[in-house]
Amino acid sequence: MHALANKRYHKAAPLLLVLALLALLTGLGAVATSQSAEATTVSASDIEDGQKLFASNCATCHGIDAQGQDGVAPSLVGVGAASVDFQVGTGRMPMQASGPQAPAKPVQFTQEEISQLAAYVASLGAGPAIPTAEQVDPELGNAAEGMELFRTNCAMCHGSIGGGGALTQGKFAPSLMETTPTHIYEAMLTGPQSMPVFNNANIDEEGKRDIIAYLVAQRDGSPGGLSLGAIGPVAEGFWAWIVGIGLLIGSTIWIGARSS
């Protein structure tokens, strides 16, 4: 019986090997198809057009090869497409004048040109890619979880609901009330200016989307009435001090005047 089983095993071994190879080739084909689909989103002409745009608009500061210039602008090799999409897509780049940080301003390029610039810079070295629509969809996030993450990692600079705040040396954390979900995600990925980088080891993709869901939820207005600057208990305490203590002092003076 044992010999018969061994004989059957030896006959089936080639068939099992063929099936295993077919499964491996199928998996590799799926990966290749996925990679080719991604590659079609950025063509060689996009990179070439992006290089021309870079040479005429960015090379003055960042250098013709994007290696940067000491004391002028950093190297862009390895910053990835996400960094370009954020900086150029929010109007921070190109800068109009040097200063503590680049403020957001009207965008100077079309979305197609921004994509071409991002494609060129991404071709110089691996870096964070522009997030997908699914990664930044606030409807897929958990606002309650996002609140905890935001107040732990972001609120000390941006305020409790993303209203912004002052930093040192003339810098500031901008308001996030009108920032698009894509740009919020890209800022976490790339850490622009004074902001730290929050990679997936710090806040994973799901956490980033939860934060976006929380911030978007804050744009529905103030359900409690006046927002008082949307800076939380500080404004409420100030209001109580000025009005509440003021009324007590006024009442005390009035009672004292009547008694005399």
From TrEMBL:
> Where does the Cytochrome c domain start and stop, copy by copy?
45-125, 141-219
Q: What is its EC number?
A: 7.1.1.8
Q: Which UniProt keywords apply?
A: Cell membrane, Electron transport, Heme, Iron, Membrane, Metal-binding, Repeat, Respiratory chain, Signal, Translocase, Transmembrane, Transmembrane helix, Transport
An example of a Pfam family matching this protein is Cytochrome_CBB3
| Enzyme class label | translocase
Q: Tell me what topology the record assigns in the membrane.
A: Multi-pass membrane protein
Q: Which reaction does it catalyse?
A: a quinol + 2 Fe(III)-[cytochrome c](out) = a quinone + 2 Fe(II)-[cytochrome c](out) + 2 H(+)(out)
The signal peptide stretch is: 1-39
Is Repeat there in the keyword field?
yes
Transmembrane domains' residue ranges: 238-257
Concerning InterPro entries, the annotation shows: bc1_cytC-su (IPR009152), Cyt_c-like_dom (IPR009056), Cyt_c-like_dom_sf (IPR036909), Cytochrome_c_Oxidase_Subunit (IPR050597)
Superkingdom classification of source: Bacteria
- The primary site where this protein sits is membrane
Q: Does the keyword Electron transport apply?
A: yes
Compartments, as annotated in UniProt? Cell membrane
Q: Subunit structure, per the record? A: The cytochrome bc1 complex is composed of a cytochrome b (QcrB), the Rieske iron-sulfur protein (QcrA) and a diheme cytochrome c (QcrC) subunit.
Designated name of the protein: Cytochrome bc1 complex cytochrome c subunit
Q: Which organism is it from?
A: Demequina zhanjiangensis
